[in-house]
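Notes from the pairing session

We agreed to fold both candidates in a single pass and log them together. This is the raw record for the first candidate, unedited. Please don't reformat it; downstream parsing expects exactly this layout.

Candidate A
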Amino acid sequence: MKQYLELCRRVIDSGEWVENMRTAKRCLSVINADLEYDVSEGLLPVLTTKKLYWKSAIAEMLGYLRGYTSAADFRKIGCNTWNANANDNAAWLANPFRKGVDDMGRCYGAQGRDWRNPEGEPIDQLQNLYDDLRQGIDNRSEIMTFMNPGERDRACLNSCMHTHTFSILGGKLYLTSYQRSDDLPLGHGFNQVQVGWLLMIMAQITGLKPARAFHKIVNAHIYEDQLELLRDVQLKRTPLPLPKLEINPNIKTLRDLETWVTPDDFRLVNYKHHPAIKYEFAV
């Protein structure tokens, strides 16, 4: 997509070098970026300048919505993105709150489905906003956040795309997603798909029409060992038309998402793309 490629060029042209303490790698960084995706006609904002494994992106978000906190559960639904952070992250391996192999701790799904109030009682953020949206209610607080400052030390990774705010206007559903950290060559493609998919699937199970998703990024960056491939390969490719996402019409409720839905319940029509690019992953 054009706006993604423009953001990549902006980072290359005007970004500043930063030494990332967590990964011990240098990266080019800029602060603040805003992307917008119109999904009203079913077009999924998937990258076309490289092959994207979009089903894995959907599987990951599906795992978040189910409250998964184990990399093993993500693997079962076709997502391997949590293996390294759960099992190869030195700081997390030494963390006394880690429960063992594949444990991710209190990030993402743990917060979205099992937030704890001061009395230790569970708050199911997703269920609450789903119940409101299904009734056409928008109290301007239809928010699900995966970021809990009080439990950041209990997670293998601070949630990157951390907050999703839903809004209803004229019978249409909108989504604003906030991301604190964005690995442009590698992670962004997943996140972009997840924003679009989350709006589409929430619209379907609440009986609303999907409109636009707004993707707000705080820190957009390119790691030093990704720069050459991005600049000399991906940015020289011509974007192709966006494909349309077909969703199994039998998915009608949140309970369906929690129980039987798999990535195979989604199909991309006419997804044409350039060859895959293997970027380095920073743990």
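Candidate B (folded immediately after A)
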Amino acid sequence: MTSVKIKVLLVKAKDDPMPGIFHPGPHQRYRYPRLEIVTRRMKVLQPGYVRLKVLLAGVCGTDVHLLESNKSTGYVKCSAPASIPRKGRILGHECVGQVVEVGEAVAGLRPGDIVACESIISCGVCIPCRQGAFNQCSRARLLGMQEDGIFATYADLPQRICHPIEGLELKPHGLVQAVCLEPAAVAWVAFEHARVQSAEHVLIFGGGPIGLFLAMLAKYVFGSLWVGLIEPLRLRRELASRWADEVFTPREFWRRKPHSLPYYDAVFEASGKLENVSRIIPSCGPRARIVLLARSGKPLKVDAVDWLITNAISILGSRGHLGGAFGKLIHLCLADRLPLHEVVTTEIAGIKKLKGLLLQPQRLPKEHAKVIVRIADI
């Protein structure tokens, strides 16, 4: 298998950090991104790694932002941790694959197994990891961003980020649900951070895949009394209406009568429009939680500080999916309790078509919700 050539989709960019910025983010460092499909030869499989035939891959907003650039400066819009070496970075971090080979020191997986993959490679030994905060690992490497990802015909990944899906592949829509586990787990961890309890009012800004999974979890798992979602794009609003009690355009939401509902208990900002945070604080109730998920690289400004203090409102960030969310979601899918596949609006076949789709990153969110790519069949 080591001598087999594979096709990969990678991004290249000009490495040109903005002057005067200490530790610039990707949006301050990489300019003029471009996509290439190249052929590479598989390296020797490392101990602790498994080799996967990639079956399905999901397209994430982070992938799109790494390809979308500022028209005036050429800098990419992605502010999430990323590094693009001169040879390029293989994109993609949402994956279902079939094990074809296992390296030394791998136990519990064998060729033929079907796995879904996490995307944060934590070290396991830093202080946050030793405290169980794996999503905040100080040495974490992000798949498809800081390590080569899964937009490829085959990929070598650490065994510890590969989850057997326990027969989910045998159920209708099972593989599609499995490729959605990573973004759905991000939503799950956000709910845990927000300490959402039953009979609470939940508000979600943004109807992209993360926002839609938040609405679905609120409806089917966390027992929310009322779920509202704000989204400017019609396609995504129509999807959200399956799980949200009320769906609004931003204009409709901000023009509605103040406090037409009891105060919000949990607010999730998944749109990247940070001005929503300051505007929503006066509508948040005592001990409400506001969770930030979407990155924009822009500053957060808070005006209603007195209301924030008086009502002990928390603003917190949430990143990642580690810590057990995958297993819980797999069990819910096996029990037909969580239709993750319903968020998928588009399936395409092959790396070549994926490149064509990503060459127009501005169109992607306007025409699709969740896009998956069928790379190979079992």
